[in-house]
Amino acid sequence: MKINCLSCGHKVDLGDAYGNYTGPVKCMVCGVILQIKTEEESVKAVSISMGSEVVSAEASETAR
Fold first, then answer.
1. Are 24 and 35 in contact (CB under 8 A)?
2. Cα separation, 43 vs 20, whole angstroms
3. Of the chain's two ends, which shows fewer C-beta atoms within 10 Å, N or C?
């Protein structure tokens, strides 16, 4: 399972360990922390915290 980093666009490979997961994932290219939610090996939500502002994207736009 892969998601695109909302900050730099890098494809982050989550692997099989993130099939049912809610929590942080760090982009190894830009270092931003992505908050993700997955269920049954499908990405449901991705967001990025930028100070007090939170930017979100629908899973259909970020998962490929």
1. yes
2. 9
3. C
CA atoms of 58 and 29, how far apart (whole Å): 22
* Bridge partner residues of 32 (DSSP): none
List per-block mean pLDDT (blocks of 10 residues) for the chain, which spans 64 residues: 92 87 92 92 85 50 46
Give the separation between CA 63 and CA 18, rounded to whole angstroms.
13
Token digits of residue 33: 């922390």
- Assigned token pair, 16: 């099989």
Q: How many CB atoms lie within 10 A of CB 17?
A: 8
d(Cα 40, Cα 55) in Å, to the nearest integer? 24
The residue assigned the tokens 């915290």 is: 49
Residue of 53, 51, 52, 58 lying closest to 36 (CA atoms): 58
